[in-house]
Design brief:
Elements lengths: L4 E5 L3 E8 L2 E4 L9 E2 L2 E3 L4 E3 L1 H6 L7 E2 L2 H4 L7 H6 L6 E5 L3 E8 L2 E6 H20 L5 E6 L5 H13 L4 E6 H12 L11 E8 L3 E10 L2 E11 L3 H20 L7 H20 L2 E10 L2 E8 H27 L6 E5 L6 H11 L3 E2 L7 H12 L10 E5 L4 E5 L9 E5 L4 E2 L1 E9 L3 E7 L16 E8 L3 H4 L7 E9 L5 E11 L7 E2 L2 E2 L1 E6 L1 E5 L8 H40 L8 H18 L8 H19 L3
Parallel strand pairs: 1-11, 11-12, 13-18, 15-20, 18-19
Antiparallel strand pairs: 1-2, 2-3, 2-4, 5-6, 5-7, 8-9, 9-10, 13-14, 14-15, 16-17, 20-23, 21-22, 21-25, 24-27, 25-26, 26-32, 27-28, 28-31, 29-30
Bound molecules: adenosine-5'-triphosphate and magnesium ion (MG).
Protein name: Similar to Saccharomyces cerevisiae YBR169C SSE2 Member of the heat shock protein 70 (HSP70) family
GO molecular function: ATP binding; ATP-dependent protein folding chaperone
GO cellular component, one term: nucleus
Length: 638
């Protein structure tokens, strides 16, 4: 049986949960943590992913890629890049379309990876973790993503899922996921005919702070509005501390950590720890041995000073975010505010939210796990394998979506507004347009405008593109005109992807005099047209190649792991046999046999620490089997 899986894809950590046994279980990783660092590192023979990547990060900083969530589909020469580049220690390279990729030293040579590949590697690691736990195939997955992930990032994430072998994937933003969890688990929600309960959700994580206002009835969740601030999260606070101590160290120790990536990174790591100490203490200590030039550094930081450092980063942006979310939601007040994300543990952040909203904060949700649990429940909702308490949820688009088509009727416009920005999705709509023959249809974010040039020129914020065929102008053209009336059935799914579900040629129904019914043109469907979805991902052509490469790299990682395990088994079998020869086997062996065995173990040991230091799994295994065979044979004498 397959179980629905939720993944909260965080920039610092990700969390996996599985919906089963009438509940949701958060999975524990190989070192018993409930969250896994979002990191991929590269080494001489293998990759270091998640916890391994974190452990090796300081010694392998140039070949370790973190911040995967913000790196995905990041482009050079954008405001996002300007903000991100200071957190990137690896060598950055340009992929087609200006996408940022990395160059790392892996398996003895420089190799280049796109951000989609890196995220795919990480998701594959999480998938393997989940597979080991649920011990059956994974079908339904819901990933919670940042509120700010635009179409390009979401398409790239879906590409990464394909490479990682995750098929049925739904994407929802982390606040919606948390709100769904709230809606499914709170017992005291009003009935449908009663006034809705209105709750705010603030998530302040490692890179982003976001705020949503949602209304609740039993079995129904509606996101009324949301807003976010990129560059407002724990990472910015760690950096503020690091910059402060960098100046201090120049003065006190005459070392400039800004000139040494590794030293700077080590201070950032300690700053993060110190920041957490300051959430519960009035002051804390930062100590690092041999930071640069064999100098040990140490300094104290008070909470007051920390707050002084982060106030310029937090106050204005958070105020604006709160004000905008309230304005868009058109509500004056909230019943409560739920806190999510690690950085809402910081007293200054908490106090600010309370002060600026005027609402008492509530921590009834587990701030690190509400989003992933909601994601697992959303995966369960769309799965056929598990029955769930029914819940309907809708999010708000926040941006208009418009449709454009080529082959318009001469002299007529070729665009129409599909959904206004206040539309709640998932949603499906029927829309009528006029064309002159088979056509290409495209959906774009933003307000509709008339396009003079070819629609392929509007490549900004493309949400989907389709080839519609099967029109026979002679047969389908309306009499005495050059128009063909076409009905499009278009939807925006739960992941905010636009789909053309069906297209029909229609004719005016002459039995209705005003030509309209229920506000819609009164047309009769006469023929079903063909819809071909055109790929919009810039990585489309690479996906098969990248999937194959990922499979090869996973096999290589596994081979390195298995080789290491076999080597360890051989090593312990050497010690075990040697001690048994003089111990429990002593009476079972004659002196000639003892001599032979001791010589064999000595030779194997010498080989292991010399030529055999870096041997193949087959070599370790054959020596191990030989020792095991001897032991088995002696055991039969007992
Ligand atoms: N007790 C604490 N005091 C202060 N900061 C904390 C505390 N615990 C965690 N953090 C910070 O919270 C951040 C991680 O939060 P979280 O796990 O919610 O982030 P994320 O989901 O990976 O990132 P994002 O949501 O931005 O993608 C880190 O910066 C971490 O240092
Ligand atoms: Mg998060």
């Amino acid at each position: 049986m397959s179980f629905p899986v939720g993944i909260d894809f965080g920039n610092m950590h990700s969390v996996i949960a599985v919906a089963r046994n009438n509940g949701v279980d958060v999975l524990i990783n190989d070192v018993s943590n409930r969250s896994t660092p979002s990191i991929v590192g590269f080494g001489e023979k293998q990759r270091y992913i998640g916890e391994d990547g974190k452990t090796k990060q300081i010694s392998n900083v140039l070949n370790t890629v973190d911040n995967l969530q913000t790196l995905l589909a990041l482009r050079f020469n954008t405001p996002d890049f300007d903000r991100e580049k200071k957190y990137m220690n690896e060598t950055l390279i340009k992929f087609p379309n200006d996408f940022v990729g990395v160059e790392v030293n892996y398996a003895g040579r420089l190799q280049q990876f796109s951000s989609t590949q890196l995220v795919a590697t990480y998701l594959n690691h999480l998938k393997i973790m989940a597979l080991n736990d649920i011990k059956s195939e994974i079908k339904d997955v819901c990933i919670s993503i940042p509120v700010w992930y635009n179409e390009e990032r979401r398409v790239a994430l879906m590409d990464a899922c394909k490479i990682a072998g995750l098929a049925e994937v739904t994407l929802v933003d982390c606040l919606t996921a948390a709100a769904v969890f709230y809606g499914l688990t709170k017992p005291d929600l009003p009935e449908l005919k009663q006034k809705a309960k209105v709750v705010g959700f603030v998530d302040s994580g490692h890179t982003t702070t976001s705020f949503a206002i949602a209304s609740f009835h039993q079995g129904k969740v509606k996101i009324l509005s949301s807003d976010f601030v990129k560059g407002l999260g724990g990472r910015d606070f760690d950096r503020a501390i690091t910059e402060y101590v960098a100046d201090l160290f120049i003065e006190k120790y005459k070392i400039d950590i800004r000139q040494n990536k590794k030293a700077y990174f080590r201070v950032m790591t300690q700053a993060e720890k110190l920041k957490k100490v300051l959430s519960v203490n009035k002051s804390g200590q930062l100590n690092i041995e041999c930071l640069m030039n064999d100098i040990d550094v140490s300094t104290e930081l008070t909470r007051e000073k920390f707050e002084e450092l982060i106030t310029p980063i937090v106050v204005k942006k958070l105020e604006q975010c709160i004000a905008l979310t309230f304005k868009r939601a058109r509500v004056e007040s909230l019943d409560s505010i739920e806190l999510l994300g690690g950085s809402t543990r910081i007293p200054l952040v908490k106090n600010l939210i309370e002060e600026r909203t005027g609402i008492k904060l509530s921590s009834t949700l587990n701030q690190d796990e509400a989003a992933v649990k909601g994601a697992a429940l959303i995966a369960a909702k769309y799965s056929s394998t598990i029955a769930l308490k029914p819940i309907k949820f809708k999010n708000v688009l926040a941006q208009n979506i418009s449709l454009y088509w080529d082959k318009p009727v001469p002299g007529r416009h070729n665009s129409v507004e599909l959904f206004s920005k206040v539309t709640h999705y998932p949603v499906i709509k029927s829309i009528f347009i006029e064309v002159s023959s088979d056509f290409i249809l495209a959906a774009h974010n933003g307000k509709r405008h008339n396009v003079k040039e070819s629609i392929s020129e509007i490549n900004h914020n493309l949400l989907g593109s389709w080839k519609i065929s099967g029109i026979d102008p002679k047969k389908h053209m309306a009499k005495k005109s050059e128009k063909i009336h076409v009905e499009l059935i278009v939807s925006c799914d739960v992941s905010k992807f636009v789909h053309v579900e069906d297209v029909y040629v229609t004719v005016k129904d002459s039995s209705k005099s005003d030509g309209k019914e229920n506000g819609l043109p009164n047309y009769r469907r006469i023929e079903h047209l063909n819809v071909e979805t055109l790929p919009i991902s810039p990585n489309h052509a690479n996906l098969t190649k990248w999937s194959q490469l990922e499979t090869v790299m996973v096999k290589q990682d596994q081979l390195v792991k298995d080789t290491e395990e076999t080597k360890n088994e051989l090593e312990s079998s050497i010690y075990s046999l040697r001690s048994k020869v003089e111990g429990v086997y002593s009476d079972l062996l004659d002196s000639k046999e003892k001599q032979y065995i001791l010589k064999l173990v000595d030779n194997t040991e010498n080989w292991l620490y010399d030529d055999g230091e870096d041997a193949t799994i087959e070599e370790y295994n054959s020596k191990y089997q030989k020792i095991k065979q001897i032991m088995n044979e002696i055991n039969t004498r007992q």
